Amino acid sequence: MSTGLLLVQTLNGLQLGVLLFLIAAGLTLVFGVMDFINLAHGVQYMLGAYLAVMFYGLTGSFLAALVLALAAALAFGLFLEFTIFRHLYGRDHLDQVIATFGIILFLNEGVKFLWGPAPLTLPIPELLSGSIVLMPGLLYPVWRVVVIAAGLIVAIGLYLLVNHTRVGMLVRAGAVNAAMVSALGVDIRRLFMVVFGFGTMLAGFAGVMIAPILSVEPGMGDTILILAFVVIVIGGIGSIRGAFVAALLIGLVDTLGRSFAVDVLRLVMAPAPARTVGPAIASMLIYLLMALVLYLRPAGLFPAGGR
Amino acid sequence: MAPLSIEPVKRLRRTLAGETAPVLLFLAFALVPILAAHGAEAYILDVGMRVMIFSIAALGLDLIVGYGALISFGHAAFIGIGAYAVGIMAASGIGDALVAMPVAVGAATVFALATGALSLRTYGVYFIMITLAFGQMAFFTASSLAPYGGDDGLTIRARDTVAGLPLLASDQALYYVALACLLGCYILCRALVASRFGRVFRGARENPVRVAALGFDVYRYQLVAYAISGALGGLAGFLLANETEFVSPAYMSWQRSGELIIMVLLGGLGRLHGAIIGAIAFILMEEWLSGVTEHWKMIFGPFLVAVVLFARGGLIGAWTALAARLRP
């Protein structure tokens, strides 16, 4: 367990953390303001990645692909909101789960239909494709640093937006008591459309940013969606601050757990069982964490006030 | 002369009033193997068995979702645990149903009691999420069982024997065993829902605070119902492992849990036979559409959205609404 490896894995954990934050931010706001469980949020992330690959193929420029993919993701998100989600707001959670599950099925299969089942790749922009030297003999890809930086910038931007603007104030108020905000004369539907569009765009942004590192394939949103739900439940539904803290926590715990679980277990047990038990415990770690948090604080770490 | 006025027949008719759907369902199930003998027998029996197996699990889920508003999003774990109990015992040489079935059901029940005890401290969305978390834990545990196949799953060499006799070896026999299990579970659930226990449990769905104020320990009632629900999942897992002679972590994936919820909702929530209708509809649609196109999920996905938007109360609800409209 060298310091170099620890450093690299901490950075990787941070990168997963900011990625989760980008997805969880929209999810937690939609959930908090409208009490709407949107399982289809993960496919927005997948769609962002696919759209980026498509637009990159058309334009040959990463920046153009990023901008076009974001615009298209936003348009598609608003289209879904307008045609389907709007009719699900007042409904039972169960109805929302089933309908958005249906959208997952459709879109996962849809991208397979359009782009084929084989994984696609998006090249890293040339300017940012090198590595930086962390320590003598230890390189780290620039693009991952860019992802971390972009995530942190978005987090700061969101913090300012939510805490220091009028829209942000309404969003926070909506997360505490949507009916009251509506009664005070705010068009909560329009507010929600803004929040929803913004959230889907963030998820799309996460997809574009991660596309050069991961392979772009159908179903890539499913795993990340479950992780994002773990994040918002641990953080407290409706809380951006909670989502940020929980996203970094989950990113670090998951990445470091996977890298070091076997080594840690070897301290207390024989190497052979440690190799079997280690990976299992590593993949369970975040769920154990979530169960523990819910047991101790049933409404998450930073419950949006009043609930 | 009116033959239907004879007293026992009258009594039978009274008991069966409003029971047409369940009676027809079970009659149809019983007749399938006889009709299947004239067609693609192995295939029809396979689909029929899968329908009944998932019906059992969906029944268990309907018991807690439909009557207790406890939405468990990790229910596939119970099926998986039951199946793995069979697989692991078969791998270590215990291949008799008289041992395997109680162990499979018992293991699922214990898992339900342990996770339920923690999960039921939360409510609403948090309950959905914590049951999902426990489901994922079971999934990853199964994936890491290297001696039992890990990610690839585990092939079972032969179906369980019953007291040493290979009674389950033929598909017909296993089919009728599954049918008997389904009927037993259905009757058990009906009795439970109608009992004093069921009334307290249903009351807690409407208003847990009032039920608690009446002096009932809501938590304990919910925990028992959750454990029974898990036990049904374990039984389904036992049957599934014997039917496919294969177990795999995929049985416990969260998508599977989602499919179970779909089955319950598709048929009609809180009706018990709705869960069976939902399982039939789901599996038959899957079979039919996947024969039509490879991309069948592009049809099934929008279908689910349409059911939620336009058919409140699932297929049974849509049917009742349609019947009411057609009646003069």
Secondary-structure blueprint of this entry?
The complex is a heterodimer of chains A (307) and B (328).
Chain A: H1 3-34, H2 41-59, H3 62-83, H4 93-115, E1 131-135, E2 138-141, H5 142-164, H6 166-183, H7 188-210, H8 220-235, H9 240-266, H10 271-296
Antiparallel strand pairs in A: 1-2
Helix pairs in contact in A: 1-5, 1-6, 1-7, 1-8, 1-9, 2-3, 2-4, 2-7, 2-8, 3-7, 5-6, 6-7, 8-9, 8-10, 9-10
Chain B: H1 7-16, H2 20-36, H3 41-68, H4 76-91, H5 97-119, H6 124-143, E1 154-155, H7 171-194, H8 196-206, H9 208-213, H10 218-244, E2 246-247, H11 254-267, H12 273-292, H13 297-310, H14 314-326
Antiparallel strand pairs in B: 1-2
Helix pairs in contact in B: 2-3, 2-7, 3-7, 3-10, 3-11, 3-12, 4-5, 4-6, 4-10, 5-10, 7-8, 7-10, 8-10, 11-12
Quick gist of this model?
The complex is a heterodimer of chains A (307) and B (328). The longest helix of chain A has 32 residues. In chain A, 75% of the residues lie in helices and 3% in strands.
| CATH architecture descriptor name of chain B | Orthogonal Bundle
- Percent helix of chain B, as a range, is over 70%
CATH class of chain A, named Mainly Alpha
Q: How is the CATH topology of chain B named?
A: ABC transporter involved in vitamin B12 uptake, BtuC
Biggest interface goes to: A-B, 44 and 44 residues
How would you describe this structure to a colleague?
The complex is a heterodimer of chains A (307) and B (328). Chain A is 75% helix and 3% strand. Chain A has helices spanning 3-34, 41-59, 62-83, 93-115, 142-164, 166-183, 188-210, 220-235, 240-266, 271-296; strands at residues 131-135, 138-141. Chain A has a two-stranded antiparallel ribbon. Chain A is globular and about 60 Å long. The mean pLDDT of chain A is 87. Chain B has a single domain (23-294), classed as ABC transporter involved in vitamin B12 uptake, BtuC (Orthogonal Bundle). The longest helix of chain B is centred in the N-terminal third of the chain and has 28 residues, at 41-68. The model of chain B has no long low-confidence stretch (mean pLDDT 88). Chain A binds chain B through residues 31, 37, 84, 87-88, 91, 93-95, 97-99, 101-110, 112-113, 222, 226, 229-230, 233, 237, 276-277, 279-280, 283-284, 287-288, 290-291, 294-295, 298-299, and chain B through 65, 71, 73, 118, 121-126, 128-130, 132-134, 136-137, 140-141, 143-144, 146-147, 254-255, 258, 261-262, 265, 269, 295-298, 300-305, 307-309.
